[in-house]
Amino acid sequence: MLAAFFSLPQLPLRAITRNIVRNMTGVQAPKHPKFISVEGADIYSRSKSDGIRFRFVSYNILAQVYVKSSFFPHSPSSCLRWKARSQAILAVLKNLEADFLCLQEVDEYDSFYKGNLERCGYSSLYIQRSGQKRDGCGIFFKHENAELIIEDRIEYNDLVNSIQDDDCSCEEKSENVVTSASHDVESNKGSSPKTTLPDSGDPNDPRVRLKRDCVGIMAAFRFKKPFHHVVIVANTHLYWDPEWADVKLAQAKYLLSRLARFKTLVSEKFECTPSILLAGDFNSTPGDKVYQYLISGKSSSGFSPECLEELPLPLSSVYATTLGREPSFTNFTPGFTGTLDYIFFSPSDSIRPISFLELPESECPEVIGGLPNFSYPSDHLPIGADFEITME
């Protein structure tokens, strides 16, 4: 192992450069993961396709407002400082060379990310969390390849208005949100050391329970070449608390209902059949009720937002489709290690993932001890895929 490490000719140029930077500065450059072809070969070595190929990445970049040494005592203090972290995150984003970046926990949008990514060829959409929260969700897209045609924003606090609507049975349905808390609590998973206590108020009041200040954003884009095709991109960050699984499920239901209506709007307005890509930090592990709902669109119980009939919106997970399973983890800290981040797509004959972004295993030296560190500037890992769209 050591012999291979010091035998520079055996290392790829990128690894040599990273080692030189570390020797000169004393700081290791961030890890640059690779995209692995689904077919087992490099996707760029195959004959050129007549379809649309694009790269899609989702990444919870860890809001700087949550970066405190008390939250991350396992992390080197120097890698937590904004000056170092911001440049490391930017380096990772540039290296991924994505056509679409769905970022969560963005809290320096105007002062850092918007301008720096504009210089890399990205336009962007952003929604800040409700209330006093400083972070939010952003969609960054290469405007050279895709044209924004319509957007919409999701405020999960709107669920409170559904509770207050006395003209339908939402009030009755909302009882599930409250009563399920004591009967349907998941195990202590999906939490994060950077989280804070819930907002003040009676947690048994559904209006308090559902007001979590979480948000999402979605937009439709038209590819410019080699042919026109519309894709809907949605990005979200669901509530964190592992003991409030009912609230997460309510948010997931609202998300899919809004996404289904947005798809109908886009289809009718632009006379097209759009593909759907949904990404984010869902604060839910594989197999739990939120995850199962997202891949099935069905749930036997729980709060139904706005008294809507459940709208079927079949989705498939990129990693489950390409790997046959979800990653071992996308969030790695001493207090919690597991998968919370996903990319879902609408399965059809016209769109398919042709590669996926590699993720480290827990035994990897660069993740042992927990994140963030000098190799990974967030406590989450970026996930991603290359997609191919063929003309129907």
TrEMBL record:
Its recorded name reads Carbon catabolite repressor protein 4 homolog 4 isoform X1
Spans annotated as Disordered:
177-207
- Give all residue intervals belonging to the Endonuclease/exonuclease/phosphatase domain: 58-380
Which Pfam family would be a valid example here? Answer: Exo_endo_phos
What residue stretch is flagged as signal peptide? none
* Compositionally biased intervals (Polar residues): 177-198
What's a Gene Ontology MF term here? Answer: 3'-5'-RNA exonuclease activity
Task: Tell me where on the tree of life, at the top rank, the source sits.
Answer: Eukaryota
